[in-house]
Structures are given as C-alpha cells and as structure tokens.
Structure prediction request, 139 residues.
Amino acid sequence: MIIGYTAGVFDMFHIGHLNLLRNAKSMCDKLIVGISVDSCIAHKNKTPVMPFHERMAIVQACKYVDAVIPQTDLDKYKAWEHLNYDILFSGDDWKGVPRWIEYEQKLNMVGVKVVYFPYTKGTSSTLLLQALKDISLTE
Prediction:
C-alpha cells in the first residue's frame, strides 16, 4: 500500500485545493491530509477565515481524502517519522524553497518521494480574501 501525505491550511477551500487532493490521490492508495492548526499559521502573521474544525470537516468530506489529522508542526520529516508515508505532495510554489530542499534531501534518504504539482493559477485563499475585501469596500 502506497501512503501519500500532504498538508496545508486549506482555508476557504477552492479549486486549487481540490486539484492538489485529486492529483495526490491518483498516485497513492491512502491519502492523509494534515490541516494546519492556528498556531502553525501564526508565524505568517495570518489568521484563517475559517475555524480549524471547519477546515478539517471540509477536507475530510472530500472523496479523495482517506484521513485528516491536525498539522501541529510544519516539519515534513517529523510528519514522516509519525506517519511513515511513501510520497509527500505539495504545490510547486514550494519547489526550490530552502526548507523544502532540506525536506527533499532528508526524505530521499528514507526512500520518500516528493512530488510537486503545478500551482493552480488565478486562485488562492489570499486572492479570494482580497476579492471579498474589494467587494465589501465597493458596497
């Protein structure tokens, strides 16, 4: 059985999130998704629009997802130590980022493949939030 893992905030669930989960599930038998707890997001000086428990419920309802867990630490190698997954999935916006290069190196040593999917252009939670702010300013 091939176990896949991905993680993120999954705030204001959108087509980019769906594309990531669909593509990931197509490459593994079991897909585990870590949902970032609010303390993991705080370092970015961001507060999610949706509460943690709602983000968890929405992702769990997705037919491509087999299990949802809280992501309490951003370290993907520590996640592997706990979950023993075979493939780590991410959007390609993280490719080449020093922290992710380090994850790739460490995970490669234990036989884990890192797969980057193309970022869905034109949509993100940040863009959706800005659009909502723009709409509220014009009303």
